[in-house]
Structure formats: C-alpha cells, structure tokens
Amino acid sequence: MERQKNYEKTQLLIFLGVAFALPYILGILMGIGYSKGLDVSVFPSAQMFYPASGAILAALITHKEDPLIPKRFFIGYLILSLLLLVCTVASIIVPGMSWNVISQYLMILGSVIAWILLLTEKKDKRIAYGLKGGRWKKAALIIVLYLILYFGRTVIMYILSGQMQTMLELIQKPVTWLMLITLPINYFLIFIAFFGEEYGWRYFLQPILQKKFGMVRGVLVLGIAWGVWHLPINFFYYSSPSAGLISLTGQLITCVTLGIFYGWAYLKTDNIWTVVILHFINNNLVPIITGNYTEEVLQNQDVTWNGVIVLLVVNTLLFAGVIFTSYFKNHSRRLPTMDERVDRQMKKLEELAQWQDTME
Predict the structure, then answer these.
(1) d(Cα 70, Cα 114) in Å, to the nearest integer?
(2) Which of 87, 226, 271, 350 reaches 20 to 30 Å from 143, CA-CA?
(3) pTM of the prediction?
(4) Rounded CA gap, 270 and 192, in Å?
C-alpha cells in the first residue's frame, strides 16, 4: 500500500509537469506568435496529446520493470507527441511552412500506426493499462444519449439566439448530412488526439482525484483542472487576450459540466474508448452544427458574458444531472488508479498460473 502511494505521488508530479507545465510554457511561445500575427493553430492540436503523454511517461518511469506495460504503443504515442511539439515550436521559429497541415498529416498517420501498435499488444497488457474496451452495449447507449443531448443543446441555442431559420437551412444542406455520415470514418483517422486528452483526464487523473477527494468533489476538481488547462488556447486561439477571461469562464463551465457526464460515462462502462468517442463527437460536430466547415471554426470566437450565462444554465441542465446518480454516491463505484489496475491484473495472472500448475 505504501509503495502504491509513493508511486502515485511520483506519477502525479510527472503528469502535472507534462500535462500542465508544458502547455503553459509553450503558451508563452504561442502568445508571442499570436502577437506577431502568426498561425498558432498547431498549438491546440498538439496540446491534446500532453495529458496522455504525462500518464504514459509516469507509467514508463515508475513501472519500467513491469512486464505488462504496453511499450510499443506507449513509445509510439510519445514519438508522435514529440513530433507535434516540434511542429508547434517550428511554427513560430520557421513560420513560412504549413506546419498546421504537416501536423494534421502526422495525426492521421499516427492514428493508423497507433491502431496497429495497440491491436498488436497482448490482451493482458491492454487490460492492465486501461486500453481494452468493454461493456459496449452500455457504451453505445451512452453515446446515443450524448448525441440526443448535444443536438438538443444545439436546437436550444439556435432558438435562444433567434436563428431557427439558419438552423433549418443548415439541415437542408447535403454537405451537412455528408459530413455526419463520414464522421465515424474520421474517428478512426484522428482518434489519437482525443485519446490524448481522455487517457490523461479520465483514465489517469479521475481515479486519483476521486480517491483523494471523493466521488463528487473529485470529478468537480477534475473539471476545473481540465478547464484551466485550456487557458493558453482560450487567450490566443479560441478568442483574444481582451476576451480571454470570458472565454476561459465559458471553458470552465463546459469542462465541469461535460466532465461530470464524461466521468459518469467512464464510471458506468470502465471503457476509456467510450469517453474518447464522446470527446471526438463533441469537437467534430462543431463544424456541422455551425455550418462553418473550415478549420478556423473554433478560432476567434465571439464570446460574451450573456452567452456564458446561457451556457451555464443549458449545460448544467442537460449534462450535469448525472452527478446525482448512484455512481457518484457510492465510493465503491470508483474505478482503480493506474497502480491498482496493474496490481489487479498481475494478481489475476498469478492466480491463473497457480491454477494451471495445480492442474498439471
């Protein structure tokens, strides 16, 4: 137990250094690029990779002798993350090249390679480090529920803004339906970015915070941390420094409310791919529901305090209600931390080996 506690403390420090300190340090460079009018769109894409990188480095450093560690997948992921980090720095130092396009190709190629590396890892390794799916019926129902809530929020927002005609015109466009149909294909080509956040937030950090603060406070602390993590992007990409505080406040509301829903989805399915898919849906439906099909759809948003208040009310009503379910009332519902998960799988394998020995 003491060994596990010491590991968790070391792992948390490594995670925080990579997941939080790194994007904030790079945020300084991002701010410099923004002030010079340079393209900083590589930064948000690359930042999505840092939470999982922190969790993976924590595993590789503290579990270096662990025979169950999926080294091929982990090392492949870190190489991709490093290449994207290089792209962010290069986009400011050598601004003449299309670094954003290069980063997009890297993510597509990286996703394909990641699938191969992941699926060639042994099943025991994937189970030990939370990479194996499961409870897919529950996952499918949650994904459908999320889609209903997401589109419900979209309709509400269009009604409140008095743009129902715009929404109806959007529904009638063939490109809208074409993009919806191709969404599942796109997932397999860029899933690695969304894995980058969720493996860090839900798989690694959520169990630690819920173990320390309890089921409800743990997921709320995680939502706040997740929101604050976006700060450089809020000030230099989603909006501007002058509107950065409004953008960050809206981000906090989004991350706390969606963090509750994602946390519940993860608790209910114990399947990291459930929340990876939810996160993918959340980001990739934005161009479709807004009718802005360019990559700048999230950039330079028009944010207001009135919009933040509306977001608070709507998101809370639609997504945060699951916090009153039994999954947040019963501490026994907490999912295992990384160390607990590995120890549990190792124990199962040892028991299986002992059983096989008695049968021979």
Answers:
(1) 12
(2) 226
(3) 0.95
(4) 19
